[in-house]
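Archive maintenance. Older records in this collection stored only the sequence; we are now back-filling the structure field for every entry so that each record is complete. The fields below show one back-filled record exactly as it appears after the update. Entries are processed alphabetically, and AAA+ ATPase domain-containing protein is next in the queue.

ARCHIVE ENTRY
Title: AAA+ ATPase domain-containing protein
Organism field: Gossypium harknessii
Length field: 495
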Amino acid sequence: MGQGTPGGLNRQGFPGDRKQDGSDKKEKKFEPAAPPARVGRKQRKQKGPEAAARLPTVTPHTKCKLRLLKLERVKDYLLMEEEFVANQERLKPQEEKAEEDRSKVDDLRGSPMSVGNLEELIDENHAIVSSSVGPEYYVGILSFVDKDQLEPGCAILMHNKVIYSLGQYFGFEARIFWFGHLGFRIISGSGSGYFRYGLLTFYGQNELVQVLSVVGLLQDEVDPMVSVMKVEKAPLESYADIGGLDAQIQEIKEAVELPLTHPELYEDIGIKPPKGVILYGEPGTGKTLLAKAVANSTSATFLRVVGSELIQKYLGDGPKLVRELFRVADDLSPSIVFIDEIDAVGTKRYDAHSGGEREIQRTMLELLNQLDGFDSRGDVKVILATNRIESLDPALLRPGRIDRKIEFPLPDIKTRRRIFQIHTSRMTLADDVNLEEFVMTKDEFSGADIKAICTEAGLLALRERRMKVTHADFKKAKEKVMFKKKEGVPEGLYM
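Back-filled structure field:
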């Protein structure tokens, strides 16, 4: 009998196939492979009720976002325009009323209006005023005048209305008192009747009376003579157009230009910059030309005035013009005030025998006060120029007012050569021109004389219909200029 094999082993003694119990996993069945993906044209979506109810796909695309922002901006603009139109419609009645009120104020002011000065404020509705000619008046201030800006000394506008009044009842003296007290000016008289002013009634002869009242205020009053002194356009001359004068250019830069551009340098070294300089020397040596170069090189406001312009006809107008000049310079600071021919007002003081001489001395005293008075000048520099420094008053030249005196001598050989090169640089010269002959001459040439020689030589060439200037033209021009110079200047004038 054969014995059975142990469990789990087959007949050869190896583990054999044994039926798995229920806990074992079943064997995997065969599954066919997935069909290949469809390649080619995309199958069309079938239309139907489901496709109609489905919402379109919305993606956050860049173009859509930009379009949305653009439409929102357009909407904001439209809203702004709508608000603007609504505001204009709402403000239109107010503008019409303001225009009507403005016309009423203009009618009250009248035309023309007189210009006067406010001497004293009595109260909110009354003041004492004066005009350029005539006495002072006690007048009323109309309600539409801005009283916060009224201060003694300011320029005001007064209306110029003429009415009929009566004042014979009080007699001539009383009439003058009452009408002067009420701000009236009597012009003429004719007829009879009565006149009422407030609660007062006057009976008697008709008088033509001018009523004065403050109706306005002049803002930023600037004398027209001072406004034309301001150099609006910088001159074309620069330091490169000046032949020689290197020492003079250096001195004026240190005294005028550098304190305005780099004031911290003077603070660091512990000194106060100079207040002004004076340029003196013979005519034609380049004083005014150097002042033009300063105006060209700096961005400061440049005010130029001739000394004779400060001499005015009426009493007190000269000192007033000097005060106005420095006030405008202070308002426009940093600024430079250039006074040419200062010897017109700055001569030495003697016993004056006429009103004109005394007025010139008062103008110079005001100039002395403005140069070194109680108030500081700040960033205002002064340049004076004269041909006769020996005739100026010593008080004008003392340190503290004029700290530097810059002399302009006649040009030497090196300076002459440089000036000839500057003035002949744009001229068409012939080959025979030898400028060294004129540079080395013993005649005393100024810079203006050299310029006149070059100009005269060009005119002589044009007279002969030539486009080039020859050496002979320069010789003739030199003789002509030197002859006029020796003939026109008295001997011993410039010592």
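Update note: The chain has three domains: 113-217, 224-408, 413-488. Confidence is low (pLDDT under 50) at residues 1-9, 164-206.
Entry marked complete.
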